Q: What sequence folds into this?
């Protein structure tokens, strides 16, 4: 009996060796925050690596050499007024821009995070469409705790008069199309299914990510988005897909509707403002498409300078020169010391001059990538 009791104690000890954490509003981003990130992925979104090859069993992450380093970036959260100039998303108090260019408007309170709506460029034009949902979609209810579940869905529509698209409808079809249809409808639907299904400890080592050991709460997220563009018949009032419209459907660079489902594990930790790790999977979770890390930029920057690179003058007041022998379509990224991406420049010749006269005084970091997005050099300069 004593052995059984001791075994039971051992089991309890292993279960409670680390505590379950909860995520509150104070652990989340807000307007004016900036979060440095690094993306490991493939150039082709359909490629993947078997999950067990890149996700260690004990969740200790080091170099992600199985993936390409696609991007170093800084996710910046804005006051909504910087994008919502017409006041369509008046409830929102925080806005951010996704890697795909969508502008997401959020309402963040002590109780929950809601997605109010989104903005995106109209297809084939540079105009913005404002998609306000029929109701706010709840992203998180605070506190977020183990075994919590959230299921929600929303719809958004925006109608535009067909005359706004005269420039993109072939002239020989315009009269026919406008005789049948009077407006264009942009339709969006989002379905969200998330649960907090695991907790434990996660450790990061090496220079490429934020180092240390953290207690995590894992979010298992499935998000489906549907985007469609339809034409309204003048007489019947019914809608037909743009793909089926004569003179337009065969001109489209994509098939409509566009349906996309993301299967994601988000690892949330305390006091980090955002998930410290995001893993995107195939539909059955057996393969990994990409990993995104929050990182401490100063520990990531590679200051090893390739032999044929010269950066001068340093310190600099206005014009800084990047001299690289046999330069082959490289890209230069400049960061501030808090990890914010300040600017990017193509390096397409052996000598490139960059005007930084408008930069604030202080230290800046730079990184140079080759045409395969591999970091080949890095360093810092001082703006006087």
A:
């Amino acid at each position: 009996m004593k052995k059984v009791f001791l075994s039971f104690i051992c089991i309890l000890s292993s279960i409670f060796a680390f505590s379950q954490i909860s995520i509150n509003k104070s652990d989340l981003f807000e307007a004016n925050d900036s979060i440095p990130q690094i993306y490991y992925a493939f150039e082709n979104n359909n490629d993947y690596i078997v999950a067990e090859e890149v996700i260690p069993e004990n969740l200790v992450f080091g170099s992600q050499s199985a993936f390409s380093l696609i991007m170093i970036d800084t996710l910046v959260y804005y006051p909504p007024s910087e994008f919502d100039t017409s006041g369509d998303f008046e409830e929102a108090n925080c806005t951010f821009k996704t890697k795909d260019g969508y502008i997401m408007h959020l309402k963040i309170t002590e109780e929950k995070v809601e997605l109010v709506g989104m903005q995106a460029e109209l297809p084939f034009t540079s105009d913005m469409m404002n998609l306000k949902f029929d109701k706010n979609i709840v992203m998180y209810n605070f506190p977020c705790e183990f075994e919590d579940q959230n299921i929600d869905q929303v719809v958004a529509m925006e109608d535009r008069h067909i005359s706004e698209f005269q420039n993109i409808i072939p002239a020989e079809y315009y009269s026919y199309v406008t005789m049948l249809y009077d407006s264009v409808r942009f339709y969006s639907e989002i379905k969200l299914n998330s649960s907090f299904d695991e907790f434990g400890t996660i450790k990061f080592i090496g220079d490429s990510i934020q180092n240390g050991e953290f207690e995590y709460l894992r979010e298992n997220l499935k998000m489906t988005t549907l985007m469609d563009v339809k034409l309204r018949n003048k007489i019947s009032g019914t809608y037909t897909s743009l793909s089926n419209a004569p003179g337009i459907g065969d001109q489209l660079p994509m098939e409509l509707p566009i349906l996309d489902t993301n299967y994601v594990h988000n690892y949330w930790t305390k006091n980090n403002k955002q998930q410290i790790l995001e893993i995107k999977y195939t539909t059955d979770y057996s393969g990994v498409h990409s990993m995104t890390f929050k990182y401490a930029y100063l520990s990531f920057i590679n200051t090893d300078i390739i032999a044929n690179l010269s950066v001068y003058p340093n310190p600099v007041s206005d014009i800084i020169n990047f001299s690289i022998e046999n330069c082959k379509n490289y890209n230069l990224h400049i960061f501030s010391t808090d990890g914010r991406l300040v600017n990017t420049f193509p390096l397409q010749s052996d000598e490139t001059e960059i005007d930084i006269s408008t930069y604030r005084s202080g230290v800046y970091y730079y990184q140079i990538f080759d045409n395969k997005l591999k970091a080949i050099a890095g360093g810092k300069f001082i703006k006087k």
In short: Confidence is low (pLDDT under 50) at residues 1-17. Residues 2-15 form the longest helix (14 residues). The chain is about 10% helix and 50% strand. The longest strand covers residues 181-204.
